[in-house]
Design a protein that fits this description.
CATH superfamily: Ribonuclease Z/Hydroxyacylglutathione hydrolase-like
Bound molecules: zinc ion
CATH architecture: 4-Layer Sandwich
Largest sheet: 7 strands, mixed
Oligomer: single chain
Number of domains: 1
Strand order of the largest sheet: 1-2-5-6-7-8-9
Length: about 220
């Protein structure tokens, strides 16, 4: 898929061809890069290959934002930190699960088989990060307890993590089999629909570029 918005890429080749995982790469001012999530274990070579193909160097990645502790998001976190020396950032609650201290016991139930990472910077709801000129951290629990989304009001972009899936081009709430507490996810969805945004960057299913808020509104009205 590659470049989907002015400064945002989707790394190609992460996940299965019929169900790709959207690892986002953000071009910051001054030549720095930010990565949002990292894919399953073993995907760092794909990410590094994408960087090389597009004329970027691994050390340009200065931050890795982590939406939550699931294996398909943190699987290559340690490998990407080793390759880039980037700073990792997650919600304070999720940081403990990413470090496997304690081991996460929520769905989907498989053992947490990724390399544990001590996250460098923990954030909370309402914090501002120097990404895309300024994004707000939104605590959007439900899928996992410390799941976060990132919101650029100025650019109308919402990185939604796994709160919403764009499954087969149909927007749905996080599926129950992967979800720690569905009612909390409903409340999180009600919260984000109040924001002004145009683009919804989903991890599962194609990101929605343009007209996204109306689609979220239609979904939330039925929850
Ligand atoms: Zn997940």
């Amino acid at each position: 898929m590659a470049k989907i918005l002015d400064r945002i890429h989707v790394i190609e080749g992460i996940g299965k061809p019929d169900s790709p995982l959207n690892v986002f790469l953000i071009e910051e001012k001054g030549g720095q890069l930010t990565l949002v999530d990292t894919g399953l274990p073993g995907f760092s070579p794909k990410i590094l290959e994408y960087l090389q193909r597009n004329g970027f160097k691994p050390e340009q990645i200065r931050r890795i934002l982590v939406t939550h502790c699931h294996r398909d998001h943190v699987g290559s976190l340690k490998a990407m930190i080793d390759a880039t020396k980037a700073k990792s950032i997650s919600h304070w609650l999720e940081a403990a699960f990413i470090a496997q201290n304690p081991v996460y016991d929520g769905p989907p139930g498989s053992p947490p088989n990724w390399d544990p990472v001590r996250v460098d910077e923990v954030v909370k709801d309402g914090d501002e990060l120097d990404v895309l000129g300024g994004v707000e951290v939104l605590h959007t629990p439900g899928h996992t307890p410390g799941h976060i989304s990132f919101y650029s009001k100025e650019l109308g972009i919402l990185f939604i993590g796994d709160l919403l899936f764009n499954k087969d081009n149909k927007l749905i709430l996080t599926p129950p089999e992967y979800t720690q507490h569905t009612q909390s996810a409903v409340i999180s969805a009600r919260r984000v629909v109040k924001l002004q945004f145009e683009h919804l960057l989903t991890y599962h299913g194609p990101p929605i570029v343009g007209g996204a808020r109306q689609k979220v509104e239609a979904l939330v009205s039925k929850l």
